[in-house]
Design a protein that fits this description.
homodimer; alpha/beta; Dihydrodipicolinate Reductase, domain 2; Alpha-Beta Plaits; 6-stranded parallel sheet; 37% helix; NAD (chains A, B); oxidoreductase (chains A, B); HDH (chains A, B); metal-binding (chains A, B)
Amino acid sequence: MALLGCGVVGSQVIRLMHEQAGDLAARIGAPLELAGVAVRRQGRKRDVDIAPELFTTDAEALVTRDDIDIVIEVIGGIEPARSLIVAALSGGKSVVTANKALLAEDGAALYEAARQGSGDLYFEASVAGAIPLLRPLRESLAGDHVKRVLGIVNGTTNYILDKMDTTGASFTDALEEAQTLGYAEADPTADVEGFDAAAKAAILAGLAYHSRVTAAEVHREGITEITATDVASAKDMGYVIKLLAICARSDDGRSFGVRVHPAMIPRSHPLAGVREAYNAVFVEAESAGQLMFYGKGAGGAPTASAVLGDLVAVARNRLAGTRGPDESTYADLAVHPMGETVTRCHVALDVADKPGVLARVAELFAKHDVSIQTVRQEGHGDDAQLVIVTHRATDAALSATMEGLRELDIVRAVASVMRVEGDD
Amino acid sequence: MALLGCGVVGSQVIRLMHEQAGDLAARIGAPLELAGVAVRRQGRKRDVDIAPELFTTDAEALVTRDDIDIVIEVIGGIEPARSLIVAALSGGKSVVTANKALLAEDGAALYEAARQGSGDLYFEASVAGAIPLLRPLRESLAGDHVKRVLGIVNGTTNYILDKMDTTGASFTDALEEAQTLGYAEADPTADVEGFDAAAKAAILAGLAYHSRVTAAEVHREGITEITATDVASAKDMGYVIKLLAICARSDDGRSFGVRVHPAMIPRSHPLAGVREAYNAVFVEAESAGQLMFYGKGAGGAPTASAVLGDLVAVARNRLAGTRGPDESTYADLAVHPMGETVTRCHVALDVADKPGVLARVAELFAKHDVSIQTVRQEGHGDDAQLVIVTHRATDAALSATMEGLRELDIVRAVASVMRVEGDD
């Protein structure tokens, strides 16, 4: 087998392959042999114990070598990862990858290459790191119907939101702390703007609904606009704000929505207790009911654990002359636009405290067919605030209502708007 | 395929096979056909929609019929389930079973029959119902080392302990409520004495440590002795009492312990929040770190979901002419006796409040090499109570210490002893 990339994850894969060589051989039924490691630069000092001649900068030559039957890709990013994986798969090799961005952008091309070459494409490490999640979704739940997936799938943003919740810190301060501790990158865009979570949401939705989904189809909002006041006000009401990846089937089962955005969830919800950089995915299936999978979503060793689990599986498959589950897109359901997604909203309005204000606000909600669950007035006089939580409505109706509120003369400002999930 | 048993789980399996016939066929690549259902009594009114001629009381004939390639067993118990499964497997059929008692008593015989016939033996539903747990353990973590498994795997006892914790009820009252609500059987022995959990612990330990384990090797204590006072005193100290199935590798990795007993866990532990009849299994692996799997551990539809997931897998394997993972016992580690298990203890002593009492108690702990973490004296005079939490020590040393305490003249009574888990 060959390894593409020798960074944080790759070096852990090598370490574990050494340390557990005996166990892996027993579990597979044959020993694993590392035949080459593709790196960008030769001669760099690396914290791994392998013969220097195994390193090569010619990844293309490595993935087409005849003596290699399995390729592990942990480079990340779209190119050259895509070309290398496609070349390996087309050439009949099996591939284990942790590359969520590539799978979410062009998974179909990878599966196609795997079918051509009759090899395996496994990618457990691509979503929620060490948590066994994709295998359960595509195998254990193969006899069930997934209604909804609610996931905390990005450790960086969960760390930031958890700090804001427990210490009252601002987004900027919490981000800075996350960067100092290595939980966030110098350029945190992919995490805080939800791109990373959106790629994972696309992969989860594809498996859950047996349909093809790309990251471009995922509605995406990040957490940069969340203020300490939003977090405190959620706390007051018994909620906590989390960045969620949500896949939800429509009521008629003919389409589904996929979205990533911050949302308020009740503190009693199992996801509310997911602290620091941990990940957790909550799955609601028709027969199985509510399930939750919890663990470390990132890091060298946890991700390497998932990669090695896949490696054992594809190696066993090769020995048995068989393949694991292929892409399953038979349902071919449509992704419905965000406007058709049914959700609920928490909205805080700065209003003038005078008679008739509530009536005019309520009238606007009614006009858009949005039913109000609770209203609370806080403060009075010039500082009066209306806090409203709606019943379920389409996102389009909720957005139109928020638009209308902003134009209402008696509304000084729409202080915050946040979707509410997990309490229906 | 054939179904053995048409009770709570079996009838849900039939219902779901009907309702999801199209999906199952698409996921497998071929339609499933139910060729027979073995029942104890013919002609009984059943809540399933199948042709009456499919029912038979001759299960033995059914499992050897040539036109049947997959057998689902949901009868439970040792016989006739064992003979039927062995006959089916030896005859080359694949078997899906939810039978934890049989697997924990004689799993080796079933695996042997599966090898002879080259069929599959799948049993995801046997532990923690709908929660995908066995597949993650034996496949996703195949490249990792499991250090410890802490599981709430019996819904009945979790319901009872949760009621005692939230309402202050006695064991008897909580049991009665559980019986009224259908969470406990009229004869609750298998649940409250830990037999059910012990069978599951044996299955989990076997998979986690790649060794053969039977229920007889599991140290087992039930929850019938737990008093409302124990529960309240745990609560005071920030703990909650749960019946845990624990599989833990020794520090040198050469053996492991398997046990089922009530234990105090900190309220901050992810398992502490598992309410009512839910199940959850907490796994600590060397590379993956802490993982938790949560969901419904019993019930017709959840168990049927797990059975159908396995059914899809074995059907796919048959179409591909391959087999799923075989029994993995290569590590062949020994189960060490309970006395060698390392754990911690919480003990409450009724003592006389006079000088020198603590010194004599402390001396006894020291004599047995048990180090004390905290001591708290409550009350005074005749009602004085010493509450001691130890550091980690072998169960043998802890037991000898408790024995010694009972014989100490200054100790009026050992009011409660409870192991402490999950905070190291």
